[in-house]
Amino acid sequence: MQKPVELIVFDWDGTLFDSVGQIVASLMFAAKQFDQPLTEADAKSIIGLGLPEVAHVLFSTVPELHADILKCYGDHYVEHSKDDRWFAGVSEMLTDLKAQGVKLAVATGKSRRGLDRVLNQTQSMELFEITRAASETKSKPDPLMLAEILEFTGVKAENAIMVGDTSYDLEMARNIAMPRVGVSYGVHTLATLQQFNPLVIVEDVPALHQFLNQQVNASDVA
C-alpha cells in the first residue's frame, strides 16, 4: 500500500525558481574581481550548497578571501536578479497542491536573507508551512534541514517527498530515507540524479505537477 503523501519539500533555485543563470554569472563576476580562476561548469555544479561550502569548494586556496568574495557575489546577485521568476507553471502547481491539503515546505542552500527576499519577490510566504535555509542549519546533503522540517510539521519521512534538481537535494533525502523526485531542467544531469534512486525524474514543471498530483491522489485512494 502506498504511503499517504502529507508533505512535499521543494528546493528553490533550479527547481522552483529560474535563477541558475544569474547565480553562475554572479559567481563568475565575483571570481574575476579577485583574480580567481573559475569555469561556468564549476560554478553551476555547486548550486545547492550553502555559501560557506560554495566558497570552500570553489576557492579553497584563498580562505582569507572567502568573506569578500561571497559579499561581492551576493551584492551582484541581488542587483541583477530582480527580474528572476518562478519557472512557468510553478505558481499553479503550488496553489493546486496546497488546495488539496498537502503541506508544502522549502529546503534551500540560500541564506535566510536571500530566501526571504525571493519569498517576498514571489509573494509566496503563505504557501509554505516552513522554510529552511542553509545559513540557519547544516548545508545539503546533510539531512538536518529535512529533519527540522519533519519535526515542525509532524510528518514522517516516509509520508513526504523531496523535489530537487541537484545531487545534493536527492542525497539529502536519501540520507533520511525520504522519497525523492528529480527535475532535469535545473543544474545536474539526468545521469547524476539517477544515482540517488528517485521515484521519477521529470523534464519540466507540468510533468512535475502531474506526477505529484498522481502521488497525492494515489495516497488518497490507498
Please describe what this structure looks like:
- This protein has ten helices and six strands.
- With 222 residues, it is an alpha/beta fold.
- Helix 8 (167-175) links the parallel strand 4 and strand 5 (180-183).
- The N and C termini lie close together (6 Å).
What oligomeric arrangement do these chains adopt? Answer: single chain
Q: What is the helix fraction of residues, given as a range?
A: 40-55%
Q: What is the CA–CA distance across the termini?
A: 6 Å
The sequence of SSEs as H and E is EHHHHHEHEHEHEHEH
Please report the number of helical segments: 10
Q: Looking at the structure, what is the overall shape? A: globular
Strand order across the biggest sheet? 3-2-1-4-5-6
In short:
The protein is of the alpha/beta class and 222 residues long. Helix content is 47%, strand content 12%.
List the helices and strands and how they pair.
Layout: E1 7-10, H1 20-33, H2 40-45, H3 51-58, H4 66-80, H5 90-99, E2 103-108, H6 112-121, E3 130-133, H7 144-153, E4 160-164, H8 167-175, E5 180-183, H9 190-194, E6 200-202, H10 205-221
Parallel strand pairs: 1-2, 1-4, 2-3, 4-5, 5-6
